[in-house]
């Protein structure tokens, strides 16, 4: 078993794509054990063969439609009239726009890449430092998968057998806490640097921008309203979200042409294919780990430190934070969740609590070097070095870690809404 992990890590170091590294290491391990090759195909096909996973491509497509059809511009303008006059100015607009967009895309990378271009350009034009603009964009984008809908939470629900609706509800309050924390940090930095702020808007301006963004703002209401009332499942909600995005893009706003729509669909297919290939390979890898009793050994190791649920959760959160620095989030989840589930069941931790904490810590990894995908994206947009972006993000990173610690130590922050509704 150790040889399997070491061989896989060697392939990763050699820059072999993640899906292929998992599949190659798993295949080599099974061949050395004299296993029939049909098991490899069987386990890889079983990975993506899941009804809840159907939500992933549709949420990806919905987010791409929102990004590509001018809808995000309307959301940004609405956020600007709401908070652009507070010290910190467009930094607050950046955070609020990410909170609103989080209710549509479910992806931190989509937030950073889609909203990021518009946000960073607007901030730099108004005299904000490029490194600060990049930092607040990268940090605020991590809110995307915490406030529902959330692609990582769908994956966690599939892997752990946890209600996706409960996970979605559990992410609301932590996501808002992340936003408040980032706005406090933005306020302090904005005051110290004397950044320009907008004038306070009139009621008429607020109404006009709200009216323009209203149909887009309805998206999260439709998603969560339908799930909570039981009208449709999270998977069906994803499909309805795409239909709604197409309706307002093609019929109401008329902001997308046939060629642009084709490009959006192709991009969504490519992104979905990448995720599903990783899911297939990771399912094979995870099956081997489970068969070799690694979850049981890990449980015994973790419980040797403590059987206190709070301490166990802190150790798990620390593990995810550390691994998030060097691992892609999807692969980390696919490998770790099957290992962690027996442990939390044994000590009485709620799977919903674990899921939200896991995803939150996983998102922090997007702004934690050396992996830090969001930092790579925003540094390119802002035309600054990766090191400059990483240094400017440190205050926001500290804030997000504090929020993660609070959510880890106080389960009711996560569990209040799911228990209230369900």
What does this structure look like?
It is a single chain. With about 425 residues, the chain is mainly alpha-helical. It folds into two domains: about 1-35, no CATH class; about 35-420, no CATH class. The chain has 20 helices and no strands. The protein is globular and about 70 Å long. The protein starts with a helix and ends with a helix. The model has no long low-confidence stretch (mean pLDDT about 85).
Keywords:
422 residues; 2 domains; 79% helix; 0% strand; globular
Summarize this structure briefly:
With 422 residues, the protein is an all-alpha fold. The protein has helices at residues 2-13, 18-32, 38-46, 55-68, 71-83, 90-105, 108-125, 130-141, 151-160, 164-193, 203-229, 234-252, 258-291, 294-305, 309-324, 329-347, 351-364, 373-382, 386-409, 412-421.
What is the topological layout?
Layout: H1 2-13, H2 18-32, H3 38-46, H4 55-68, H5 71-83, H6 90-105, H7 108-125, H8 130-141, H9 151-160, H10 164-193, H11 203-229, H12 234-252, H13 258-291, H14 294-305, H15 309-324, H16 329-347, H17 351-364, H18 373-382, H19 386-409, H20 412-421
Helix pairs in contact: 1-2, 2-13, 3-13, 4-7, 4-12, 4-13, 5-6, 5-11, 6-7, 6-8, 6-10, 7-8, 7-18, 8-18, 8-19, 9-16, 9-17, 10-17, 10-19, 10-20, 11-12, 13-16, 14-16, 15-16, 15-17, 15-19, 16-17, 17-19, 18-19
């Amino acid at each position: 078993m150790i040889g399997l992990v070491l061989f896989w890590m060697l392939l990763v170091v050699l820059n072999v794509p993640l899906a292929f590294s998992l599949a190659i290491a798993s295949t080599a391990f099974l061949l050395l054990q004299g296993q029939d090759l049909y098991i490899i195909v069987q386990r890889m096909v079983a990975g993506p063969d899941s009804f809840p996973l159907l939500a992933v491509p549709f949420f990806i497509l919905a987010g791409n439609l929102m990004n590509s059809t001018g809808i995000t511009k309307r959301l940004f303008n609405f956020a600007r009239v709401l908070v652009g006059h507070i010290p910190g100015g467009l930094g607050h607009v950046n955070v609020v726009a990410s909170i609103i967009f989080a209710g549509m895309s479910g992806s931190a990378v989509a937030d950073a890449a889609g909203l990021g271009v518009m946000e960073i350009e607007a901030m730099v034009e108004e005299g904000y430092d490029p490194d600060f603009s990049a930092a607040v964009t990268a940090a605020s984008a991590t809110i995307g998968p915490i406030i529902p809908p959330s692609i990582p939470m769908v994956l966690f629900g599939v892997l752990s057998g946890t209600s996706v609706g409960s996970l979605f509800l559990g992410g609301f309050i932590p996501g808002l806490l992340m936003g408040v924390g980032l706005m406090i940090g933005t306020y302090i930095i904005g005051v110290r640097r004397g950044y320009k702020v907008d004038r306070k808007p009139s009621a008429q301006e607020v109404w006009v921008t709200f009216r323009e963004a209203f149909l887009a703002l309805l998206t999260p209401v439709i998603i969560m309203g339908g799930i909570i009332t039981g009208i449709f499942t999270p998977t069906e909600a994803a499909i309805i979200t795409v239909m709604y995005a197409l309706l307002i893009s093609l019929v109401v706003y008329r902001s997308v042409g046939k060629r642009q729509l084709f490009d959006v669909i192709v991009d969504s297919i490519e992104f979905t294919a990448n995720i599903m290939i990783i899911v297939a390979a990771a399912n094979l890898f995870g099956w081997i780990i489970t068969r070799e009793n690694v979850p049981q050994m890990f449980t015994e190791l973790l419980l040797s430190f403590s059987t206190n649920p709070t301490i166990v959760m802190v150790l798990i959160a620390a593990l995810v934070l550390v691994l998030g620095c060097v691992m892609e989030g999807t692969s980390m989840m696919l490998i770790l969740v099957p290992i962690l589930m027996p442990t939390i069941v044994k000590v009485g931790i709620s799977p919903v609590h674990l899921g939200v904490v896991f995803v939150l810590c996983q998102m922090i990894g997007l702004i934690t070097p050396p992996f830090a995908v969001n930092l790579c994206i925003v540094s390119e947009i802002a035309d600054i070095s990766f090191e400059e972006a990483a240094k400017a993000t440190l205050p926001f990173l500290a804030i997000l870690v504090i929020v993660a610690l609070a959510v880890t130590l106080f389960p009711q922050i996560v569990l209040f809404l799911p228990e209230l509704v369900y």
